[in-house]
What does this fold into?
Amino acid sequence: MTAPSSLNVFLMYFEEIITLLMVKTNRYHQDYVDGLDDGPCPEPDVTEVEIFVFLALTVQMGHCVRDKLTDYWCTLDQLYTPFYGTMMNRDRYLHILRYLHFTDNRNEPDCTEENFDRLWKIRDLFEILNHTFSKFYNPSENLAIDEVFVPFKWRVIFKE
It folds into this structure.
């Protein structure tokens, strides 16, 4: 048996999240377009591949920090990095960033309720991560715990 590739391991944990991002982002964009008076928007729905590329570009941006987001697609000789423009058009990246969503806003709970879920905006993501990590990650008996976690005394309002 061969060892799984890095991409396969990544997809084990995040394939469902990429689908969630695609569905909720498209829903949020459609809700926005439906609220406009001037008709449908010509932007096509975001695909799973585009979400995957969007996430890859976003991670890569942490390795090559620029002053402005649009500088990653700049064509000036001193800033030009063809990788970003080759992977995704700047306007498409900005479109996904603008409408990126983890939940359906039409299901917003009443914040005056006693059991109001403060994490409702990311609840679906949280549940997917909890399920996936418990399914694929089985820590060994001997774990090293960083001392900064042990004396934690602050209040966490969304702790379950």
